Every structure is written in C-alpha cells, then in structure tokens.
C-alpha cells in the first residue's frame, strides 16, 4: 500500500506517517522500499498506526509513545510495571482534569460578570466585591 492510501485509510497525512517513520515508530516490519525508492506499507503498518492513535488519544507524548512501542515490541515489562504506568497515567489525567475544571469555573465566572455588566451593573459590582473579599481572605 502506498503512503497516500495509508494516510487516507488512517485519517492521517503522508507527512505525519513519514514523521512517525523518522522517529522510529514505524520500521522495516511496516515499510518496505521498492526499487524506485517508493514506500510500500504492510498490513502491520495499519495496526501500528491504530496503536499509535490509541495511545495519543489518552495523551501520550512522543517520548512515551516510543517507550510504549518498544515495550510492546520487546514485551519486556512485567504486568506490575504496566499496571504502575497505567496508574501514573490515570493520576496525570486526573490532575489535568482538575486544572480544566478550575479553568471552566473561572471562565464561567468571567462570562457571567461580563453579561451582568450590561444587563445588571449593580449585580456585576456585587460579584466583583465578593471576589475581592474572597481574594483578600486567601
């Protein structure tokens, strides 16, 4: 399969697939070079790209992807090590979720305040006064 066919099938760009190859996420099991130097991708490349997309979907960085795929290929990690990595990833996502929740609270407060400036300025001022009090107490 040629790179454009693979890109279309996987919802990626040829540039992204070449980048994965350059970074070592795809190797000779996934890509064969023809005599004209065109890349020919195997069915294993499809499965590998699905795996890459799966781990990107849970927020894995490029460095994590490399490690995960090396571990996947070599099967060297123990089950306990994989469990520890999963727990670490869950904790990381929970921290990010808490940060996003805090951002949403702040943005919703700002939106309400801005709307009240037009609709009910005294209530907007009361919101701001309450915020100043809370900020002074922290």
Describe the protein.
It contains 6 helices and 2 strands, in the order ααββαααα. It is mainly α and 138 residues long. It has 2 domains: 3-74, Orthogonal Bundle (Multidrug-efflux Transporter Regulator, Chain: A, Domain 2), CATH 1.10.1660.10; 79-137. The protein has a two-stranded antiparallel sheet. A hairpin with a 5-residue loop joins strand 1 and strand 2. Helix 5 (79-119) packs across helix 6 (121-137). Keywords: DNA-binding, Transcription, Transcription regulation.
CATH topology of the largest domain: Multidrug-efflux Transporter Regulator, Chain: A, Domain 2
* CATH architecture call of the largest domain: Orthogonal Bundle
- Strands in their spatial order, largest beta sheet: 1-2
| Strand-pairing-aware structural class | mainly alpha
Described by strand count, sense and barrel closure, the largest sheet is: 2 strands, antiparallel
- Could you tell me the radius of gyration in angstroms? 24 Å
Strand content: under 5%
Low-confidence stretches: none
The first-level CATH class of the largest domain is given as Mainly Alpha
Which outline best applies? elongated
**Total strands:** 2
Distance between the termini: 61 Å
Mean pLDDT: 93
- DSSP helix fraction: over 70%
Number of helices: 6
Secondary-structure element order, as H and E?
HHEEHHHH
How many independent structural domains? 2
Main attributes of the structure:
single chain; about 140 residues; mainly alpha; Multidrug-efflux Transporter Regulator, Chain: A, Domain 2; 2 domains; two-stranded antiparallel ribbon; about 5% strand
